[in-house]
Predict the 3D structure of the following.
Amino acid sequence: MAVTIKSAREIELMKEAGKILAYTHDELEKFIRPGISTLDIDKKGEEIIRSFDCIPSFLNYNGYPASICVSVNDEVVHGIPNKHHIIKEGDIVSLDAGVIYKGYHSDAARTYGVGEISPEAAKLIEVTKQSFFEGIKFAKAGNHLYDISNAIDAYVRPFGYGIVQDLVGHGIGSHLHEDPEIPNFRQRRKGIKLQPGMTLAVEPMINIGRCDVEWLDDDWTVVTEDGSLSAHYENTILITEGEPVILSLNI
Ligand code: MF3
Ligand code: CO
């Protein structure tokens, strides 16, 4: 599938989807506390998304059974919410959510510390978030796709963390996953030339330890192979001639 350039109308719809998604994340951040289950987070997220007459895009996507991916500690992404999995003080919790507004998608992820967390965990969360912002400094028309990948890699590498390679960011629009794939690690080629109207989900996934990941028997939950903590940060962005517009962040 070719990389699509969105029309002004499509961009408006994606802006609206992004605002609703940003609001959903902001509400979930306030909701997370020790004692709730990962399923409570999913239910709350779904309720917020549906209150805007939006559809949670992950629900039933390739058979994924929930609206919000909740990935705790060594879970990298795609954790399945479960009423028996109780959040506790010191956990780090990655929430990944998607909304569909009038046929258009927005996709974003955040990682939060619950109560008091270790300095090492806090640093991982901060570096993962910052790596997104370092990457998108290069997300403008005329640059190449892998300028983003290389900037994320160059920023993260000195911390000694493992950059997940088995999962990547992606184009987004009328589908959750569109071309191109967006790796978060160094590429030897340049990749496609970025053009105004491209919409991308940039989503670094970073492990404190090694980069290797594995899939649990549920066929969804991705965990670090070495059991180390992992963080995830993602937004849907719009390429312009100048600074990218972060569609899924309300400021
Ligand atoms: N942000 C995730 C991604 O881009 C979406 C979760 S996939 C789902 O892959 F299957 F859980 F929906
Ligand atoms: Co995504």
Remarks:
- The helical segments are 8-31, 38-51, 119-136, 145-156.
- The chain has a mean pLDDT of 98.
- The longest helix spans residues 8-31.
